[in-house]
Write a structure and sequence with these properties.
The protein is about 40% helix and about 25% strand. The protein folds into four domains: about 130 residues, GAF domain (Beta-Lactamase, 2-Layer Sandwich); about 100 residues, PAS domain (Beta-Lactamase); about 110 residues, Beta-Lactamase, CATH 3.30.450.20; about 170 residues, Histidine kinase-like ATPase, C-terminal domain (Heat Shock Protein 90, 2-Layer Sandwich). The protein is an alpha+beta fold and about 600 residues long. Strand 13 and strand 14 form a beta hairpin.
Length: about 600
Amino acid sequence: MDAPSQEAFDRATRLAARIVGTPVALVSLVDESRQFLLSQTGVDDSTAGLRETPLSHSFCRHVVENDSSLIVSDARQDPRVRDNGAVDDLNVIAYLGVPLRTIEGDVLGSFCVIGHEPRVWTDEDHATLLDLAAGVEAEIRLRRQTNLAHQEHEVFRAILDQMPIGVALAEAGTGRLLDTNNTARNLMGAAVEVSAGLANSGLQAFDANGQPYSNEALPLNRAALRNEVITAEEVTIQQPGRAPLHLLISAHRIDSDPPLAVATLLNVTERKRAERNAFQSAERLAHFHEVTRDGILELDAENCVRYSNGVMRERVRRAHSAKLADAFLGANILQEFPNLQGTELEAAMGRARATQQPQAADVVAHDARVLEARLFPEDGTLLIYLRDVTDERAVAQAREILARELNHRVKNLFAMMSGLIGMTARHATSPASMAEGLRARINALARAHDLVSPTATLETGFRGEVDFDALIRAILAPYVSAQDLRVVLEGLPVLLNQAGATNFALVLHELATNAVKYGALSCETAKLHLSWQIVPGDEGPMLAFDWHESGCPERLEPPRPTGFGNRLIDLTIHGQLRGTYGTEWPADGFLARIHVPMELIKG
């Protein structure tokens, strides 16, 4: 309610008034107190500025209340509305309105046409209004879904940027860096924006053994280029003017479109510094252990607890009991906490002692919290850092759920398109032929899209490189071969943008279908000559296109093109491309002349 005027809805009301032949067409939204005119065509200036009426002047309220079409031939004689204020005040005499529903089926308002004289509405009027209303409903639903998707994207972006772990995304197959969150940018500085390689960024990276990485050997690039799965790999970063940075990097590919690789960067610089200080001063180590947020254990060669910091004792107290928190010092940890037996932590302890290399493992604590354990062996002892990562893992899971939900909503849009075809067929004179025609038009758009889509990429968007000649041949391909001498194409190269390609695809499909059914493509001796050129116009260059069929069996009198296909061509050329469309009917064929401003269609 109270939304500003929008061209998509104004176009629908203009089309309704033009097709049905009424002075007024409205898109109205109705709530418990008023009727708001989201779009209005033909309303006098004094009323148009208000854009709303009270319910006492609303015919559309009956559409909403009854969830059905309202058909009024003469409001002055109709007991349902003859006392409505709109009859005398707004001269509403003839009214035809259909419901506008949400995807859940709730009625928002009405799409209606109004006449100032009595009128008997035909079934075709009603069917036309239902078809146009379906387009308005689709636009409303699409805008709603777009708004929801935008909101969800903003929430996802905010969550990602608030995460304390750095996140980076790269293009699978090339390793080109696509995106990073705030933490990754803060960790890596300007170098994180550079995707051309380490040498160009001034950044140097070293593995846990002090050996330098090549650009291709970095964890994120290995995941992107070779589909490796990297878990908690230690990386040291050195940049000019900055202290060395120690990271634990995990990376793997994710199932997305396009395929991506994701890396998480955990800053362990402070932890590494603490480890070095531990070898120099037991007192400094003990102090660090007490102030860190991680739970810390030191185990002897028999896995008995030699030391635990305050965080660890507090964790045991909360998850188990105060008595155990005070008594487990000196006890065998696997015996004191039997839930750890057979877990990944016990296996990591064995690996650390066997290899004398740091290890990592996840532990599900007694209170169901997820702890990330980092194990550092030294002379038969084990120093274990336990970090609570429950919330971080929940964020990652929420991100995956969001991606699945977005995919689900996209599938719903396709399902809605399929339902639109079925609904249109049900309201047509010949459902099968109507459905077949609509599907054919969608296929024509798809063939045009095949020409458009190769020029549209995530980075550049659509560049307008669709050749008009290629578009014509793509539309004609299902009906004639490239070697068919009946068909002649003649014209200079013309590049179309996306709007030009999709709208001309509809027009060309209609003309080709008619030629196959009734015209040149249905007769072996007939000719089809298509020609185009750029000509001057009042407001700039125009594309002049002629569709000329000749050599057909002579007819006694020209046909009367009153079908939906002819109206679709006319509406597309006039309404979408602001051009002109005219036809001629020589005795042995058909000639269509189209003029369209180049500024609207040129690539």
